[in-house]
């Protein structure tokens, strides 16, 4: 999963990782498009990588940075945008070339934010709308950025995936990285499987279901886990999952 060590850059906590979570404002299942990391309020925020500053002001609604508060966006050597959001203040200007480690501003809670933190987001495109919607896993991206790995390894988008049972539309799952997650209980019950919970982990027909995620009070597990537990065939056609019993 996410192997990037944020503490090396002075962050004491990751308060919300990249990927699916409950929206802190409305409780709905949403993709958190960046990672939330915390030092302390007004602590200096430094560039993880060098590049050109392409945005350095309050993110206007509809610009690709609405709700981001004060945001600095840096176009890196891959043409990717590295975005530093909710800053208290900004210390760089558009057009400036920044070095790795250079101070960009101070940690803050401007924009749509529930407390002082850095929302760090990486987008695989820089336009239009500053590449809005093209977010990828920032920890994964940074951990490969300084190595010789190809950019294809940096793709880790998240999106919803329709799940069918025996060719019938049934529910929605989600894709994160290369793993499709599906709701544990709904699918198990529909397929007549027995779900047990020992207070720590779930099992289906006695098979432990590992690698789950809790979203909106529902447990989602990697859909492949059903193959072993319920003896079904999981078919992925690149767009949707079909679970065949
Ligand atoms: Zn965030």
From TrEMBL:
Name the InterPro entries on file: Cell_wall_metabolism_enzyme, Dup_hybrid_motif, M23ase_b-sheet_dom, Mao_N_sf
- UniProt domain M23ase beta-sheet core: residue ranges: 32-127
* Signal peptide span: none
Organism superkingdom: Bacteria
Identify the PANTHER family for this entry. Answer: MUREIN HYDROLASE ACTIVATOR ENVC, PEPTIDASE-RELATED
* Annotated protein name in UniProt: Peptidoglycan DD-metalloendopeptidase family protein
Task: Specify the species.
Answer: Paenibacillus profundus
High-level lineage:
Bacteria, Bacillati, Bacillota, Bacilli, Bacillales
């Amino acid at each position: 999963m996410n192997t990037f060590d944020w503490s090396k850059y002075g962050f004491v906590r990751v308060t919300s990782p990249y990927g699916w979570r409950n929206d802190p404002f409305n409780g709905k299942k949403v993709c958190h498009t960046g990672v939330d990391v915390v030092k302390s309020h007004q602590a200096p925020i430094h560039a993880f990588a060098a590049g050109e500053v392409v945005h350095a002001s309050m993110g206007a609604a509809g610009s690709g940075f609405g709700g981001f508060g004060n945001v600095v966006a840096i176009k890196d050597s891959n043409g990717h945008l590295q975005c530093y959001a909710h800053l208290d203040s900004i210390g760089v200007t558009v057009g400036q070339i920044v070095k790795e480690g250079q101070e960009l501003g101070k940690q803050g809670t401007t924009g749509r934010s529930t407390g002082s933190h850095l929302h760090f987001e990486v987008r695989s495109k820089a336009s239009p709308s500053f590449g809005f919607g093209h977010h990828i896993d920032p920890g994964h991206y940074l951990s490969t950025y300084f190595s010789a790995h190809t950019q294809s390894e940096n793709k880790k988008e998240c999106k919803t995936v329709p799940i069918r049972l025996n060719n019938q539309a049934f529910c929605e799952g989600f894709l994160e990285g290369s793993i499709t997650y599906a709701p544990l209980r709904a699918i198990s019950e529909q397929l007549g499987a027995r779900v047990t919970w020992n207070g720590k982990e779930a099992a289906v027909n006695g098979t432990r279901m590992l690698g789950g995620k809790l979203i909106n009070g529902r447990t989602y597990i990697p859909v492949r886990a059903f193959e072993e537990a319920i003896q079904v065939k999981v078919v992925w056609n690149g767009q949707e999952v079909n679970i065949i019993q």
